Amino acid sequence: MIEVQHVTKQYGRVTAVDDVSFRVERGEILGFLGPNGAGKTTTMRIITGYMPATEGKALVAGYDVFTQPIEAKRRTGYLPETPPLYPDMTVREYLDFVARIKCVPPADRKNRVATVMQRTRIADMADRHCSKLSKGYRQRVGLAQALIHNPEVLILDEPTAGLDPKQIIETRQLIRELAGDHTIVISTHILPEVAQTCQRVVIINKGRVVAVDTPENLTARLTGAETLYVQLDAGGAEAGPALAAIPGVSRVLASDGGFEVESDRGTDVRRELARTIVNRGWGLLELRPMRMSLEEIFLQVTTDESAESAHQPDGATPAAEEASRG
Amino acid sequence: MDSVRNTLAIAGKELRSYFASPMGYILIGLFALLFGAFFRVYLTGFAERSQQMAMGGGAVNVNEWLIRGVLHNVAIIILFIMPMVTMRTYAEEKRSGTMELLLTSPITDLQIIVGKFLGAMGLFAAMLLVTAIDIAILFRIGNPELKPVLAGYLGLFLLGGSFLSVGLLISSLTKNQIVAGVMTFAVFLLLWIINWFADSVGPLGRTIVSFLSITEHLDDFTKGIIDTKHIIYYLSFITFGLFLTAKSVDSERWKG
Q1: Which single residue of A131, A191, A194, A317 could bond A31 by disulfide (Cβ 3.0 to 4.6 Å)?
Q2: Which domain holds residue A109?
Q3: Under an 8 Å CB criterion, which residues of B touch A?
Q4: Over residues A246-263, mean pLDDT
Q5: Domain co-membership, A215 together with A229
Q6: Nearest CB to B253 within list A51, A84, A103
Q7: Looking at beta carbons, which residues of chain B come within 8 Å of A98?
Q8: Is there a single domain that holds both residue A307 and residue A186?
């Protein structure tokens, strides 16, 4: 449905987007994830036809955004980072105007305006001026605007930015509802959002795509080993080496007043671990599996390798790490 | 069909935005006030003159002595007021981010530009229409010729259009509407005073400079002469202004 092929965008000498390629299938929700300034907005602006790419091309529903802009734009709804509202129009007037410039047939216009207002739950604000709306309503009017011509593709740039938690949940709910009929790309720098709404994630950093996968796969793929968190009430300095000596344990890190015990993939060391602890007469306060959160994955893929090698896990002193290597 | 509809949608939005804020009313009011003031000054002058002439048994032409003078001065008022009409057209869209809506909609840059131009022309037409009250009074108490009056208004309309196209271009160059307003005013002033230098640049230069001067071409209209030469001048001026605006919007796109 959306195809981005080797897109590069340069502003003067600065390369904002560097050889980015990805596809979005019909009906899919794609999360576009990256730190601020990674090139998310630029990529979205290229897909929506707001600006041309320096190199490469973007296709929407098979139409090249650059050479057939009108056809492509007819099929695209776009919510920019700041909702593009006219302060002196009422919500209804605004949506009517957008319907006109999005080429909604005159006969359907009234109907479409009513439908999207209902869908985005802004009907109660229909006759209020856009300048008098709260942030949450502005965002929803922005979304209504993107939906007005019932586009096949929806591009939403940080749709939940600046909303309160309740509004965020509502907005995500709405986006999920829209998924079947529309192909959606949402950009965000908030990771849980991706896990909750998207079927696939493109992680972009410094203008380059660093990972493309489902949220689940990303989590699994990047967790090389199984990690357990263990907390004891005794043992002190002996505990670390003792745990590391258990067969199957690859390393032990002191963390948070307990230990992170990493084991080889596929081996379950919990039974052994518990037995060792109990045999030594220590009290086992906590034993739970740790999964790498999306945050950590994100940091891992967006941090340079040089920076990564210098990075120390929280709470682990080099000495403890050294000592624990079995 | 679609392109006409899109253009009119933009024009309608522009026109409505003038009247959604006090701006449209202030501009019309100000224009009517200044027009009325000049009208009154010329009317008094005309009345005195015709009294003098009447003693000698002659008469004064109301078109030549009253309407022509007023229209010439109105050209100057337009020069002062037009920057206020155009300064926000593009600058404001860029500042508030609504430019993103327009440029990602299935409409062409040309439709947007022409739409904005027509919207501003609509406001200008409303401004001129209000001044027709003064002229109507004149028709009631005297008997001026209609044709030169209409020709004069046509001239003003074209002159205003030329100013608007330049104003639109300048507004498309900046995000800041104050900068747009001041720049537009400076350029208008330059276009106006350029023929003051006509005498100092030799015979050929004189021809060129007075041809370029935007107000010079109004003269024949106020005399009641509709010369295609001047119409073509104004129309090409407008086309060129809108063409440059299109280029400016397009280059903005590439720059991001």
Answers
A1: A194
A2: 2-220
A3: 2, 5-6, 9-10, 12-13, 16-17, 20-21, 96-108, 253-256
A4: 81
A5: no
A6: A51
A7: 101, 105
A8: no
- Say which CATH number the domain at A95 has: 3.40.50.300
What is the C-alpha to C-alpha distance for residues B228 and B233, in angstroms, rounded to an integer?
8
**pLDDT over 60 (residue A321):** no
Tens digits of per-residue pLDDT, A22-31? 999 998 999 9
| CA A308/CA B21 separation, integer angstroms | 56
What gap in Å lies between CA A34 and CA A203, rounded to an integer?
Answer: 6
pLDDT digits (tens, 9 = 90+) for B136-154: 988 888 788 888 899 999 9
Mind listing the pLDDT tens digit for each residue in A279-297?
888 888 888 877 666 666 6
Mean pLDDT of B157-183: 92
Q: Quote the pLDDT of residue A322.
A: 41
Q: How far is A155 from chain B (nearest CA, A)?
A: 11
Q: Are residues A128 and A77 in the same domain?
A: yes
**ipTM (interface pTM):** 0.87
Counts for chain B of helices (H) and strands (E), in that order: 12, 0
The DSSP-derived string for A180-234 is TTSEEEEEES-HHHHHHH-SEEEEEETTEEEEEE-HHHHHHHH--SEEEEEEESS
Residue bearing the bigger pLDDT, A229 or A90: A90
Token pair belonging to A295: 């945050």
Tokens of A63: 């139409």
Residue A185's nearest CA partner among A5, A45, A36 is: A45
Beta bridge partners of A153: A76, A183
